[in-house]
Design a protein that fits this description.
The protein is α+β, with helices and mostly antiparallel strands. It is built from 10 helices and 11 strands. The chain has a single domain, classed as Naphthalene 1,2-dioxygenase Alpha Subunit, Chain A, domain 1 (Alpha-Beta Complex). A hairpin with a 2-residue loop joins strand 1 and strand 2. Helix 6 crosses helix 7. The protein binds fe (ii) ion.
Length: 292
């Protein structure tokens, strides 16, 4: 065989938005910006955390969950479960914050084409740029400086938005970016109707100081990682839910909460514990699965 006689299929559609690269094997796929819709602005927002750009932190978390992947979609976008499912974490945070109440609030938004996001100002610490007392004075000085830089670059309102709000942005159908204690990109691989695999990578500013990088690395493990405060809670709940669906005859998962049946599910916003954005995901899923 001649050199180069066998090669991988070339991917014609490679595009990026705010440094996030997407590939598509469909030569007739719509342009990336059209596909992303308003989700593209969420990627822009994340990229504004650093004028120097981002790098991939070495290493990957990989784990499996015995549940349908769409349960993880709902879970990742849901604000309602946080205080109950992650009660241990919030008790831990209340102790660390010594008087600052880590109450959840914020909003959920549908972003078009099944994309959706959940944003909350909950006080859980962000290397860009929300300080927590147990990080110490050196980190406080650095984070205050970082905050000044972001605000001077983006203005008071946009700067506060970038610094203070955690967000989960779901990119339909199987990717999510958790912009919280770090920036975590999770790819969800459905393995069967009742099993999924998660692969998660962290991003960090290229010019991040050793101190803030250390905090970021500890954050990855302490909350978002598979052995952290959050993920084991969610994994347990998802697997219990999957077992319940398989062993009862109900056949339906009712996630109705506060939403008016007549509310518009396209490009609208609701309070953080609404189900509006979950419905938007399901509507897009139904549209694609029902297509000829
Ligand atoms: Fe959770």
């Amino acid at each position: 065989m001649k050199p180069g006689g066998v090669r991988l299929t070339a991917v014609k559609n490679v595009a990026q938005r705010a440094g996030f690269y997407f590939v598509n094997f469909d030569d007739d796929a719509m342009p990336l910006d059209e596909f992303l819709g308003a989700a593209g602005q969420r990627l822009d927002r994340i990229s504004k955390q650093s004028a120097a750009g981002f790098e991939l932190v070495a290493g990957v978390h990989e784990y499996e969950i015995s549940a349908n992947y769409k349960l993880l979609v709902e879970n990742s976008l849901d604000g309602y479960h946080l205080m109950s499912t992650h009660a241990t974490y919030f008790a831990y945070m209340a102790d660390l914050l010594k008087g600052i109440n880590p109450q959840i609030g914020g909003s959920v938004t549908t972003l078009g084409n099944g994309h959706a996001s959940f944003m909350t100002p909950v006080m859980s610490g962000r290397p860009v740029a929300q300080w927590l007392p147990h990080w110490g004075d050196e980190a406080k000085r650095e984070i205050e400086e970082k905050r000044r830089e972001v605000v001077s670059r983006l203005g008071e309102q946009d700067g506060a938005d970038v610094c203070d709000f955690n967000s989960n942005t779901w990119i339909f159908p199987i990717s999510i970016i958790n912009d919280q204690q770090t920036i975590l990109v999770r790819a969800i691989l459905p393995l069967s109707h009742n099993k999924l695999r998660v692969r998660a990578w962290s991003l960090a500013p290229k010019d991040e100081s050793p101190k803030l990088r250390q905090i970021r690395m500890e954050n990855i493990l302490s909350f978002l990682g598979p052995g952290g405060f959050a993920t084991p809670d969610d994994v347990t709940m998802l697997e219990w839910a999957q077992r319940a669906y398989e062993h009862t005859c109900g056949g339906w998962n009712d996630f109705s909460k506060a939403m008016d049946p007549d509310e518009d599910t396209l490009n609208t916003t609701a309070v953080y514990d609404d189900e509006l954005h979950m419905r938007a995901y399901w509507l897009q899923w139904d549209k694609m699965m029902s297509a000829d």
